[in-house]
Structures are given as C-alpha cells and as structure tokens.
Amino acid sequence: MRKTTRTGYTDDHAASGVDAKLPALDTWPNQYPRDYEIVITIPEFTSICPKTGLPDFATLVVTYVPRKSCVELKSFKEYLLAYRNLGIFNENVVNKVLDDLVAALQPKRLTVRGEFTARGGIQTTVEAQHRRVP
Q: pTM of the full predicted structure?
C-alpha cells in the first residue's frame, strides 16, 4: 500500500511523471574546444499538478558548458511541450530535465532553474546542478 500524508498526497503523486517517456533530445557536435556557456530561457513552460490537475507555469533557465555536443533547440522545444499535459511536481520537472539533458549531452556542467509562478501566495524556485568529474 502506498503511504499517504495527512494532506492526501501519496507516493504515487510524488513519483508522477518521473518515468514518463518524452520525445528524444537531438544533439549536434560542438565545434569549439574552449569552454563557453550556453543559456536557454523558456518563459512559457507549463506542466500539470499531479494531485489537483491544475496547470503550473514557470520560466525554466538551462545553463550549460558543452563538452562534445549541444542540444538541438527544435527537439528541446518538442521535449518541453510534452510536459504540457504531464502530471509532475515542480521539483521533479527540474530534476528530470537536468537528468535528460545530462544523458543526452554529457556536458562539463549544467544547471536547470525553474521559477514557478505563484499559486496561493507561494512562489517556488527549484534549481538542480550537474558537474562533470574530470
């Protein structure tokens, strides 16, 4: 049986969306051996709260230093659009995007920051980082 908190949230709510199959992230070869930073801002990100079914809105900011590959932006846009109907908590969004980008790119470093719009007087910002060990 799944554990339930006093507010009715279950382990199933907490894990919702974490293992979702999303569109593939395409990459292209990095042309420069030196370190440089790429910043991608997504001001209209949306997903769904897995408990209430209400939409969550956020600005996602992805910052990374490529190693051998860069993310192809059209595939990244299609990947992000798949979250629009996905029930997933804010914390899981940020960590899943980070994990999926790290798997596709193997970057030197990568940060995903989600600034979620206030709901009920509470605004949430979640940030997750990956640093490649030499």
A: 0.91
